[in-house]
């Protein structure tokens, strides 16, 4: 059964891949659409999606949201501490000395004025 | 029917061989018929750690290439009746053995032993694939260092892919003083990343280096905390429910010995 859902956000109409975690080092997911991971994404694992990436766990690996240039793509995780984070054509990484214990709760990364901005995820 | 357990880590130098030697020794001390199988072809070490180097006649590749019977390649431990070793070949490389040969061999050997411990080479290439091929269970050895934990994580993923889900982890060379000062990863940090069960923690202990060089596994030493840790891992492997407590830390015997050493 398919439910008719109205999406305010056009990007959410993309197909979504749901995967079971943890994604360990060496795992590589490449997908045309959104990716949702139930579990951690460890350092050395890579996710490349043309849409959004949502991780119900800790993000320690590399995620590229909007890999085909979608600058509206967002990357969210319950603990956002990636090795590197890419959105569309932007590459960023946590600042030196930034430790996982330094932040709490779910966060989301998105592009604003050509900068990757991290915000607390309001649910 | 014996159980085949592979001891692996990804990264080199974290103590796979020492761990294999000690768990095997401890299992034999518990009365289990135990065989150690060194699959690190070209870089064999397990025979040295067991102090059996000078007794080698045949090796693993002689067995897989049918130049001898498995029984002929087995070297009995110097003291423990129930403990034997099949050494690796030193003058060949990892491609000298195939995964199907390893599976065939372990299936033959398991008839005569309670436990077969496979010492896996470092890396994730052919040597790893051979070591894992015939195994029923896996133990992953790591040290409290980011690089070792990264490699352990990668290996856990490869073990799952090879049909060996839920390996158990041994955290080796822990320095509790450094952990207390916040200068070393805690066991909890490691378990959070690896998301698998712990089977033992072994403290960093000079006596391990000494015993390894002597070819006398420390598991035989009743006064050593590290020896106790290895004996507890063996007991847990055999199904005993031993709580994780002060073992591995400098416990009663260590303090007692310190008193006598004054």
Provide a descriptive summary of the structure in words:
- With 123 residues, chain A is mostly beta strands.
- Helix content of chain A is 0%, strand content 44%.
- Chain A contains no helices and eleven strands.
- A six-stranded mixed sheet of chain A has the order 1-3-5-7-10-11, with no helix packed on it. Chain A has a five-stranded mixed sheet with strand order 2-4-6-8-9, with no helix packed on it.
- The radius of gyration of chain A is 14 Å and the shape is globular.
- Chain B has one domain: P-loop containing nucleotide triphosphate hydrolases (Rossmann fold), CATH 3.40.50.
- Chain B contains twelve helices and eight strands.
- Chain B has helices at 16-29, 46-49, 60-64, 70-73, 99-109, 126-133, 146-161, 176-181, 187-194, 206-214, 225-237, 252-261, and strands at residues 3-8, 34-38, 75-76, 83-86, 115-119, 137-142, 168-174, 198-203.
- In chain B, helix 1 packs across helix 11.
- The longest helix of chain B has 16 residues, at 146-161.
- Mean pLDDT of chain B is 93; it is low at 247-251.
Which SSEs are present, and which pair or pack?
The complex is a heterodimer of chains A (123) and B (262).
Chain A: E1 16-20, E2 28-31, E3 34-38, E4 46-49, E5 53-59, E6 62-65, E7 75-80, E8 84-87, E9 90-92, E10 107-112, E11 115-120
Parallel strand pairs in A: 1-3, 2-4, 3-5, 4-6, 5-7, 6-8
Antiparallel strand pairs in A: 7-10, 8-9, 10-11
Chain B: E1 3-8, H1 16-29, E2 34-38, H2 46-49, H3 60-64, H4 70-73, E3 75-76, E4 83-86, H5 99-109, E5 115-119, H6 126-133, E6 137-142, H7 146-161, E7 168-174, H8 176-181, H9 187-194, E8 198-203, H10 206-214, H11 225-237, H12 252-261
Parallel strand pairs in B: 1-5, 1-6, 2-4, 2-5, 6-7, 7-8
Antiparallel strand pairs in B: 3-4
